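Task: sequence design from structure.
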C-alpha cells in the first residue's frame, strides 16, 4: 500500500490526526495520494481502491465523517478508463476538502449568531466547528469568555485553551468533573460532534452527555456544531453508532492497578431532548430534523451500504 496512505491512516488510528472534520479531510487526502501514485491496470485500481477504503475505515469506528468522506469521493467516481477514474477520484477528494472547509466557515457564522454579547460559553474537547463559532462571535466584538474542560485522557482541552487564549479570548480551563460546579456561571454551551444519528442523538467526546445533562438542569442552551457529513445514513436503517473504546493505558498503567479493570470509551451519546440546536452549514436545525439532513443534503441515500455500489 502507498506509504503516504499508510502514514495518514496510522496517523488517524493513533490520533496524531484527530477531530472528526480533520480525519475526514485526511481520508480524502489519502485517496488523492493513492490515485496520484497508483501504478497498474484499471481492474487493479478498483481492487486496490477498495482495500484502501477498508484500511482507512478500520482506523476509527465512531466518527461517521470518515466513512462519509470516503463514500463521497468513491461513490461519485466517474469514467471508464484508468486515467478518467484517477482524475475523478482526485477531483472528488479536492471537492470534499474544499466543501468541508467552507462548511466550517458557514457554521462559524451561523453559530456565532447564537452566542449573546457578554456571554460565558462552555465547551468540551477540541472541536474546530465549535471553536469557529466562539472565535467568530469574539471577532464580531461580543465580549465573551470561555470555560473549557481539559478533556481526559487525551487532554484535547489543552489545544482549545491555547487556541482561545491566542485569539485574546478570556478562557478558564477546568477538570471534566467540575462541569456542573461551573454551569451556574454559563450562558450557553457550544460543542462539536463526531456523528449525528437519524433520531438527532449526538455522539461526541466522552463527557459531552454529562455536560448536556448539567446544562439541561440549569436551563442553559446546549448547541452542537456539526457539518452535514457528520450525519449518519446508516442509523436510518437501524444501525447503531459504534462507541470506540481505546487502550486503557491512555488512562493509567494497569501494572500500577493490579486486579483493577480500566475502561476507556472515548465517545458518548447525548439524546436529542438535551440538544437545543444543531448548527450545520445548511442552517441551524432542531435535532429532530436530522433525518431531513441525511435525506436531502447527504445525498448518500437513506439505504446505507445497500445504496452504494
Ligand atoms: P471537529 C473530536 O474527537 C471531538 O469529539 C470533537 O468534538 C469532534 O471530534 C469534532 O471535532 P477526537 O478526534 O470536527 O478528539 O469539530 O476523538 O474538529
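Answer:
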Amino acid at each position: 500500500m502507498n506509504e503516504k496512505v499508510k502514514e495518514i491512516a496510522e496517523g488517524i488510528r493513533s490520533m496524531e490526526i484527530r477531530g472528526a472534520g480533520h480525519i475526514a479531510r485526511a481520508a480524502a487526502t489519502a485517496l488523492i495520494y493513492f490515485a496520484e501514485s497508483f501504478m497498474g491496470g484499471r481492474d487493479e485500481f478498483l481492487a486496490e481502491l477498495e482495500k484502501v477504503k477498508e484500511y482507512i475505515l478500520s482506523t476509527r469506528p465512531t466518527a461517521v465523517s470518515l466513512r462519509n468522506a470516503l463514500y463521497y469521493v468513491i461513490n461519485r467516481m466517474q469514467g471508464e478508463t484508468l486515467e478518467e477514474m484517477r482524475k475523478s477520484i482526485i477531483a472528488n477528494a479536492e471537492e470534499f476538502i474544499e466543501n468541508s472547509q467552507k462548511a466550517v466557515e458557514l457554521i462559524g457564522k451561523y453559530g456565532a449568531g447564537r452566542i449573546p454579547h457578554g456571554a460565558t460559553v462552555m465547551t468540551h474537547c477540541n472541536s474546530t466547528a465549535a471553536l469557529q463559532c466562539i472565535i467568530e462571535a469574539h471577532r464580531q466584538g461580543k465580549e465573551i469568555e470561555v470555560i473549557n474542560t481539559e478533556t481526559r485522557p487525551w487532554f484535547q482541552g489543552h489545544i482549545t485553551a491555547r487556541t482561545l487564549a491566542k485569539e485574546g479570548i478570556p478562557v478558564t480551563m477546568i477538570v471534566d468533573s467540575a462541569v456542573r460546579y461551573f454551569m451556574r456561571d454559563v450562558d450557553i454551551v457550544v460543542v462539536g460532534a463526531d456523528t449525528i444519528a437519524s433520531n438527532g442523538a449526538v455522539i461526541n467526546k466522552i463527557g459531552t452527555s454529562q455536560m448536556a445533562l448539567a446544562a439541561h438542569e440549569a436551563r442553559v442552551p446546549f448547541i452542537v456544531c456539526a457539518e452535514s457529513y457528520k450525519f449518519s445514513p446508516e442509523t436510518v436503517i437501524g444501525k447503531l453508532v459504534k462507541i470506540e473504546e481505546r487502550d486503557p493505558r491512555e488512562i493509567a498503567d494497569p501494572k500500577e492497578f493490579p486486579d483493577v479493570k480500566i475502561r476507556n470509551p472515548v465517545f458518548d451519546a447525548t439524546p436529542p431532548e438535551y440538544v437545543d440546536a444543531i448548527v450545520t452549514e445548511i442552517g441551524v436545525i432542531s435535532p429532530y430534523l436530522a433525518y431531513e439532513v441525511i435525506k436531502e443534503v447527504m445525498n448518500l441515500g437513506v439505504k446505507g451500504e445497500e445504496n452504494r455500489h
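The chain has a mean pLDDT of 95.
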